[in-house]
Amino acid sequence: MLKRIGLLSLILLAVFNSSNAQVRNTDTLTNQPLNSAANILAGNSSQGIRLGAYAQIDYNQPLNSDTYEVGKLDVHRLVLFLGYSFSDRVQFVTEVEFEHVSEVFVEQAFLNYQISDGFNLRAGLMLIPMGIINEYHEPTTFNGVERPNLEGQIVPTTWRELGVGFSGNFPDMSLKYQVYAVNGFNGFDGTGKFRGKDAFRKGRQKGAESYMSSPNLSTKVDFYGIQGLKLGLSGYFGKSQSTLFDGLLKNDSEANAIADSSRVNISMVGLDARYQNRGFTARGMLVNAKVGNTDKYNGLTGADLGSRLFGYYVEAGYDVLRLLHLNTSQKLNVFARYEQYNTHAGVAGDLTKNLAYDRTDITLGAGFMVAPGAVLKADYQIFKNEALGSQTQKQLNFGVGIWF
Hints:
The chain is mainly beta. Helices cover 11% and strands 49% of the residues.
């Protein structure tokens, strides 16, 4: 523990003494949103070694008119970024995350080799390019204290896996692309990992001694040719992984049939859009996932995984300080978000749809950007589901977010 604290202290000292880093939300030339890895790769620093961080501190208070409810305070995450440029064309990016103070994860760790302007080779632990939040999750880049639940229950943010692939940007066409071969979800390692409530979330391997029984394909194309607008189309295709294939004899038909029952086929497609014009911002996402072989998987594992997952959200906000015509970099963004997501949009076999998994969330709130990279947040949330007799849940949230 003392060694861990000492290492963290040294890293934090290096981060806070790094005065040349220039975090940007948007590339001024291509009109593309930027995240921490993109800032490092874009060279928004004069140093060979580039350091940065973001942090999110939350207070969640459930509200109930009939009973007292205990609130939760949490240093939700503290994330440290480290990048190094070996040359103008070769960079390394890593991201170390401390969740809830005591849990440590590596969220990204990849090597980027720019072969040409539109062709980069990437290899290592990478974020799956699906939706918005999974790639752009720094707390100053999204509204609300908590991330949208759709991008946690269906898109299991933060979703990252080990793999290799290519990315690139074609400014003349206003197109950016990513395509990677990655290891899939751990669906079975002696016990089933998937469930109806949040589908694949428990199956993320996160680069921690990951295994692969078959590769998966992850790809995304973004269009940013209209000022203020960014459109994304993403896809993820393949099979979940199973340890039952380890050492399996190819001619053992009975054992192969059991192993086949321990994995599912996944086809996930997502559409996302972001728009900004002066003080007005809007974003939205839609995701649809078809999951094959769930009847056999549920029969083997006793799970209740759905055969189709579907959801969407829309959000709009406005910086009300613009109405005062103040000459300031501060912002007060008031917003509203509507989410509808169902992890039992379809079921197979004898499984009955669980209507509690058909959920609607409404979030109303504001974020006060006290300085570029520092925000104070507050919002009010309403949670509903379609189960008979279910009660509407309400919650008040406050938070602090930083990114530099």
